[in-house]
UniProtKB/TrEMBL annotation:
Pfam families: Aldo_ket_red. One of its GO terms (molecular function) is oxidoreductase activity. Belongs to the aldo/keto reductase family. InterPro entries: AKR (IPR020471), Aldo-Keto_reductase (IPR050791), Aldo/ket_reductase_CS (IPR018170), NAD(P)_OxRdtase_dom_sf (IPR036812), NADP_OxRdtase_dom (IPR023210). It comes from the Eukaryota. One of its GO terms (cellular component) is cytoplasm. Keywords: NADP, Oxidoreductase. This is NADP-dependent oxidoreductase domain-containing protein. Residues 31-249 form the NADP-dependent oxidoreductase domain.
Length: 255
């Protein structure tokens, strides 16, 4: 008789991890997401537009293997390429020949920069609309405040929180989150959003074997207690944990 097929051939789901999704607020997402910080960033990551076809192949491969959470930001991209990450992500979604049949098949989480000229909630909502235009979609999965201004512009912070409320109430985003928040500020924004009837769904923070200090662990505890999903960015330490680099072979640029 013929030998039995290998175990991998019998799997019905993605190749690399269990196919059960995890919840981020109302959303069902893959346990591993796909970050696009490097797309458009020439300074830190050495991006060149000639890389776009390879990036599209990576996007298609990720989608094929069950990843449906893609994280970006309106500030990703350097110089004239500012916003390039969102533009590329939107382009790849439109041109994808894969299994995109509903909004849940690709969930985009983007972050809005707390630029000093974004002083009102309306300006923050306009930032969301600009991201939607670059992505060429009608609604975001998660709209996130990229960083807190509490330590240097506390009045601006409240306006940005109100902006998150407005974009949620207007239906521009399905969920809201924050990035680069410490435990104390996370408790404050969670309480404020709750008072406005808006759930805080996620908190994104640098988290890896190279950045797992007391604050990260405290933030994880706070997230768990509040029912907020912690999203780890740079889990491979900006590439240092991939095994690709060592003392005699360092990455180019500021890294």
């Amino acid at each position: 008789p013929s030998p039995p097929p290998p175990a991998a051939a019998l799997r019905l789901g993605p190749l690399f991890w269990p196919w059960q999704k995890v919840k981020v607020g109302p959303l069902s997402v893959s346990p591993m997401g796909f970050g696009t910080w490097a797309w458009g960033n020439q300074l830190l990551w050495g991006y060149q537009e000639s890389m776009d076809s390879e990036l599209q192949e990576c996007f298609n491969l990720a989608l094929k293997n069950g990843i449906n959470l893609f994280d970006t930001a309106d500030s990703y991209g350097t110089g004239k390429l500012n916003g390039q990450s969102e533009r590329l992500l939107g382009k790849f979604i439109r041109e994808c020949q894969g299994p995109i049949k509903s909004p849940d098949d690709v969930i985009i989480a983007t972050k809005f920069a707390a630029y000093p000229w974004r002083l009102t909630s309306g300006q923050f909502v306009n930032a969301c609309k600009s991201s939607l235009e670059r992505l060429q979609i009608d609604r975001l999965g998660i709209g996130q405040l990229h960083w807190s201004t509490a330590n240097y512009a506390p009045l601006q912070e409240r306006a940005l929180w109100d902006g998150l409320v407005e974009m949620y109430d207007k239906g521009l985003v399905r969920a809201v989150g924050v990035s680069n928040y410490g435990p104390k500020q996370l408790l404050k924004i969670h309480s404020y959003l709750a008072s406005r009837g808006v759930p805080l769904s996620s908190a994104q923070v640098q988290f890896s074997l190279l950045s797992m200090g007391d604050e990260q662990m405290e933030l994880k505890t706070v997230c768990d207690s509040l029912g907020v999903r912690l999203i780890a960015y740079s889990p491979l330490g900006l590439g240092m944990l991939t095994g690709k680099y060592d003392a005699s072979n360092l990455p180019n640029g500021p890294r």
